[in-house]
Amino acid sequence: MPERLLQVECDKFKEECGVFGIYAPGHNVAQITHYALYALQHRGQESAGIAVSNGNKVDIEKGMGLVSEVLNGRKTRRLKGHLAVGHVRYSTMGSSSLVNAQPLLIRYSRGSLAISHNGNLVNGRQIREQLEQAGSIFQTSTDSEIVAHLIARLGGDLIEDTISQAVTHLQGAYTFVMMTDDKLIGIRDPYGIRPLSLGLLDGCYVLASETCAFDTIGAEFIRDINPGEMVVIDEKGLHTRRFAAEMPLALCIFEFIYFARPDSNIHGRNVHLARRELGKQLARECPVEADIVTGVPDSSISAASGVAEEMGLPYEMGLIKNRYIGRTFIQPSQEIRDLGVKLKLNAVKKVVEGKRIIMVDDSIVRGTTSKQIVQMLRNAGATEVHVRISSPPVVSSCYYGIDTSSTKELLGAYKSIEEIKNIIKADSLGYLSIDGMVSSVGLPVEGFCKACFDKQYIVEPTRGIKKEVFESMKR
Questions:
Q1: What whole-number distance in Å separates Cα of residue 95 and Cα of residue 56?
Q2: Which H/E stretch holds residue 384?
Q3: Residue 4: its pLDDT value, please?
Q4: At what angle do helices 159-167 and 143-154 cross, to 10 degrees?
């Protein structure tokens, strides 16, 4: 029997992607981009890549695996230039394979274009079919190549004009960091569903999905890129333009709940502080008698500290994460297959033994991991395990770049809280309310996309390429 691989993954929404760009004459931009991608690694662990331009030629290194595995010193050192884009990927659209790794580099009649993309196009399939009818041949299964084909077909004297025209056909969530031979371009969708920030490093501009990347490379945060805004950075400096009418902000609220790093700031709000407030509100809404509070590492620690503070209970490290386990390992037997979560988490017996535990997590998707962690705490001697979730029940799938399960696999979509409690075998289960979640983050309620909690989708797929544009492409 051939050896099989077991995915060592928690029962969570999968990360989005991380994008980075820099225009910095006189700097080692490949190395800077390398460090920035380390800071963004939490947003995607399937592939990584860097493209660099010296003003005349674009070169690229990318591959499957973590940044440390793909971009070793020798590979990064060979990339020479003053302009770079980088990417870490989790596949939300398109399979996990080398051909889909980014940045996506195309060479066409007007030069080179490297594209790093975070998000998902809800009308991507329709546009792809139209482009294929018009003669396009696709090499990948990603949304990003759709944009490349649109740009190549639309033409135009200025690349920023062409890109502006191309993205008006797109619907969904996206941030792009693109690079031509001599320009760096950042784009954020009209609703701002995905984050993108602008920074300054020694007088040079940088773009990143999260501000934690700026801290790593020593850059200063300037501002968030606005929804529907394009920024162009070249030898003349920074230029901005709107490519879409101003729309209400609809930032994905899961950035604050789970995706973003705690040290990042999004729209002026620190992620750690927002999560701590989520925990405080959760304690107010779902009180319970207990001895200690513990969080599921790493994304739930901030919320757990808020629960402990609000309840006046000690926060303890009742669960320890193994940070060195790979994403896969050889699975020679059924016994090893059953290890599951134990490879990533371990309960601290001396901490939890004889205690009534409040276990805080950020979400429950299918419930498999929650059930295993509850049992792990019981096996370590916990007398009671009360599960508290710092978000509402997940009742619907996401179409904007988060790889959620189908609705039929989401416990919150068809099970009551009492039923879920029994499935995971907890003594009690409490979720944060939608109103409590929004008020805790501290941004206006209309500033978020929270469709996975309330089924109120911001963007619906209604069309592909506009008819008149499509007809011109076929000629």
A1: 32
A2: strand 384-389
A3: 34
A4: 130
* Cα–Cα distance for residue pair 217/293, rounded to 1 Å: 35
CA end-to-end distance (rounded Å), the chain: 54
Show the domains of the chain with their CATH numbers. Answer: 8-250+466-474 (3.60.20.10), 270-442 (3.40.50.2020)
The 10 Å Cβ neighbour count of residue 408 is 8
CA-CA-CA-CA torsion sign (298, 319, 341, 376):
negative
Residues near 31 by Cβ (< 8 Å), separated by ≥ 6? 76, 77
308 - beta bridge partners?
none
149-180: burial string, b at 16+ Cβ within 10 Å, e else: bbbbbbeeeebbebbbbbbebbbbbbbbbbbb
Tokens 């018009």 identify what position? 134
The H or E element that residue 329 is part of is: strand 328-331
Structure tokens at 338: 């059953």
Q: Where are the beta strands (DSSP E) in 193-283?
A: 197-201, 204-208, 220-224, 229-234, 237-242, 251-252, 265-266, 269-270
Q: Cis before residue 298, ω within 30 degrees of 0? A: yes
Residue where the block lists tokens 């690229």: 60
Cα–Cα distance between 55 and 181 in angstroms, integer?
5
Across 70-84, 137-151, 268-282, least confident range:
137-151
pLDDT of residue 45: 87
By annotation, the residues acting in catalysis are 17
H or E segment and range at residue 149: helix 143-154
* Residue-wise pLDDT tens digits, 213-242: 999 999 999 999 999 999 999 999 999 999
Compare 443 and 166 and report the one with higher pLDDT.
166
Q: What is the pLDDT of residues 424-437, one digit of tens each?
A: 999 999 999 999 99
Helix or strand (DSSP H, E) at 104: strand 104-108
User: Across residues 22-48, what is the average pLDDT?
Assistant: 95
Closest alpha carbon to 474 in 161, 153, 149: 153
pLDDT tens column, 85-116: 999 987 544 455 788 899 999 988 788 999 99
Q: What is the mean pLDDT of the chain?
A: 87
**Tokens, residue 467:** 């008819």
C-beta of residue 327 within 8 angstroms of C-beta of residue 8: yes
| Helices marked H in 155-195 | 159-167
Widest Cα–Cα separation across the chain: 76
Mapped onto helix, strand or coil, the DSSP state of residue 468 is helix
Instruction: For strands 47-53 and 83-89, give the pairing.
Output: antiparallel
The whole-model pTM stands at 0.89
